[in-house]
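Team,

Forwarding the record for the chain on the shared tracking sheet. I've put the sequence and predicted structure together so nobody has to dig through attachments.
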Amino acid sequence: MSELFGTDGVRGVANRELTAELAFKIGRAGAFHLMEKGRGIVVGKDTRVSGDMLEGALSAGICSVGMDVLRVGIMPTPAVAHLTSYLKAAAGVVISASHNPIADNGIKFFSSEGFKLPDELERRIEETILAEDRLPRPEGADIGRIIEVDHAQEMYLHYIKRMIKGDFSGLRIVLDCAFGAAFFIAPRLFKEMGAEVIALHADPDGSRINVDCGATRPKMLQEAVISHGADVGIAFDGDADRVMAVDEKGEIVNGDKIMAIFAADFAGNNRLPHNLVVSTVMSNLGLEKALEEIGVRLARTAVGDRYVLEEMLKSGARLGGEQSGHIILLDYNTTGDGIVTAVHLIRILRDKKSTLSDLAKSFRTYPQILVNVPAARKDEWVLDDVIQQAVREAERRLKGRGRLVIRPSGTEPLLRIMAEGPDEEELNREIGELAGIVRSRLE
């Protein structure tokens, strides 16, 4: 397993695990391996307090090997991906820990096309970071510079506004910006598109990013939608790559329901290639059933938007995502984009002259039971005959009505067991038996 790069870049507690010294090394190594793609690297960040420190160190590292930094400041992660391609930069880097707590931060690279870097390239960068530093150190005029990119937000706003025809006049929208990267750009966009906007947590306060607000904590948004009589509520996470919606009744419309709404609209307009949607094994069975009703297939992947994107590129699908609200619309961006997702959801709401609750009412959410079982030898479950027999018997009993998903935790000595189906009592019984067997075999 990678020592530094996870499924979403390098992450850790800022100034403890993710230090300024490490950020400098990441900047040097990343720039060195990407310099053949061009001279400049776009660098953006969310509002976290540690962002300034890491941005300075990372930028110094980039400049030290002779690459320029194209600084765009506080910017949503998907905006950095788009600007990297738009500005024809060698790469893009985002300093953000997304929905994680305020003490965390991360460094994530995008390729010149705006996609996450291939595993092999990340591996080479990591090897360089961990090895003795023998990278070039240019002097004089060959040292890289930090260049402020003027009007970066306007570039992204213009791009989004060109996606749809008409405006959102007559709609009242509540936006929860999570004190994060969407704090300015999202309210401005929807106001310029004609909507009446009530903005919550729309300050660049990195000491409160994601705290009891945003996509991971939508309770205040639900209350605000009701109290303001709004048509829809939208909650972003810290770097605005994911979104949760709230209907006019204050009910949450998560990523699974958003994908179902999108699939119905796109398929009806011949904009869903292969009649295919991609999501992870954790998406609710209700998504699968809702798609079946409109003749659309669901391809499932391992957990993580990286795997969703890989399958989309492989299969030719243009719509994919996760239950968490990380939605990928490949016709519009190369990664999950909460603002673009919100624009298209509200466009469908407007075009169909419907309420969000009506759009989501055909989606039946099936009960999901998730148990984390302590397992010191978590990876051995696939080799244990007793566990495998118990899994097969449980799957046979659930066949046609529900499903079972088992996966080791990537960070803890746990085996995660999820059962899903129409009968919650049955699910608890099945998962209880299986958890007991796993515990006795792997502890």
